[in-house]
Design brief:
The protein has 14 helices and no strands. By secondary structure, it is mainly alpha-helical. Among the domains are: about 45 residues, Orthogonal Bundle (Arc Repressor Mutant, subunit A); about 45 residues, Homeodomain-like (Arc Repressor Mutant, subunit A), CATH 1.10.10. The structure holds a DNA duplex.
DNA sequence: AAGACCAGCAACCGCCACAGC
DNA sequence: CGCTGTGGCGGTTGCTGGTCT
């Protein structure tokens, strides 16, 4: 007798999530926060198993998730980290802010794997030079893991320290960014700013989803979709409109973070003009995301320091004959 | 124009680790 | 110390939309 499947109950819905379900889930998490997934279906009335709820949240609704094409930098990072870590997608995802392990896994399976195969079939062994990887090179994974973990830990610590010298100021920034985010015209105070800022991102995700959902509707105008989005924001942000303008409000805190990151990684990854990233890296979102991954890179960052040391170290190991 | 094929992606499944009892 | 419940992870499936023939 095997163990009973967790989602084997009758009446448990499977298949694609509907926008309504998404809203229910996000609303619940807005109120209670993520975690205790077992309670989610019971409390929300969703006919989904806890696992499905968690997956939906982490892979799709969670704030700060970036969708769409992978950049060359991300390509390189994934290929490189995959060579080092193997198919440990969660670990790899930790190095790619805004990407989920599922996304990376899919991207690898559907695109990068083939790309690598082609390159290998192309003949020359060093043919992966364009992605900075030598796949034939053996690796000592234990060493790499330790270094990677240490690096994550140090990055987190350094970031925390960078933000902590003036905690009062930091919390002021938090409050400021939140009130700005939901209060662009300064007219209305929200009651749960520290959480809402996160869920605005979630609402953004849902809005994107809805866009797709509605895209087949005949002559669905931009106005209509804007109305829809605003409705979401109104619902989720407690009556205020947290449109993309709202991200302006996070600029000040983003600048602080930007400095922290610059001092950490030596590049300007957090251009405050990058609203998407600013939004996702708002302190609350960062804290929120902290449950799963460090936010250590920008969207279109240059060949970053982390990758640099990965390559340097790979070269070093090669020299040492590992 | 229609069917076959393919690629991309969301979601599911099963296993594992860990915490609480 | 073993059992149980829960969450996390990686592999896999199946649906959908696009392209090819």
């Amino acid at each position: 007798m095997g163990r009973p499947p967790c989602c084997d109950k009758e009446g448990v819905k499977k298949g694609p999530w509907t926008p309504e379900e998404d809203i229910i889930l996000v609303s619940y998490i807005q109120e209670h926060g993520p975690g205790n997934w077992k309670a989610v279906p019971n409390h929300t009335g969703l006919l989904r198993c806890s696992k499905s709820c968690r997956l939906r949240w982490t892979n799709y609704l969670r704030p700060g998730i970036k969708r769409g094409n992978f950049t060359d930098q991300e390509d390189k990072m994934i290929i490189h980290l995959q060579a080092l870590l193997g198919n440990r997608w969660a670990a790899i995802a930790a190095y790619l802010p805004q990407r989920t392990d599922n996304d990376i896994k899919n991207y690898w399976n559907t695109y990068l794997k083939k790309k690598l195969k082609k390159l290998e079939a192309g003949g020359c062994e060093g043919s992966l030079g364009d992605v900075g990887v030598s796949v034939s090179q053996p690796m000592s994974r234990g060493q790499w893991e330790r270094r990677l973990q240490t690096d994550i830990h140090m990055a987190k610590k350094a970031l925390t320290e960078a933000l902590s010298p003036n905690k009062a100021y930091a919390s002021t920034l938090l409050a400021e960014s939140n009130s700005n985010l939901f209060n662009d015209n300064g007219s209305n105070n929200t009651t749960k700013p520290t959480q809402s800022i996160c869920y605005a991102s979630s609402a953004d995700n849902i809005a994107r989803l809805l866009k797709g959902w509605m895209k087949n509707a005949p002559k669905a105008s931009r106005a209509a979709s804007a109305v829809t989005q605003n409705s979401f924001y109104n619902n989720l942000a407690g009556g205020d409109t947290a449109s993309s303008e709202g991200t302006k409000g996070s600029t000040s805190s983003s600048v602080e973070l930007s400095e922290a990151f610059e001092s950490l990684f030596g590049y300007e990854s957090l251009d405050s003009s990058n609203s998407e990233f600013s939004q996702s890296l708002s302190p609350e979102a960062t804290l929120f995301q902290d449950e799963s991954k460090p936010d250590i890179a920008g969207v279109d960052m240059p060949f970053n320091l982390l990758e640099q040391w990965l390559l340097d170290d790979a070269a070093c190991q090669q020299k040492l004959g590992f």
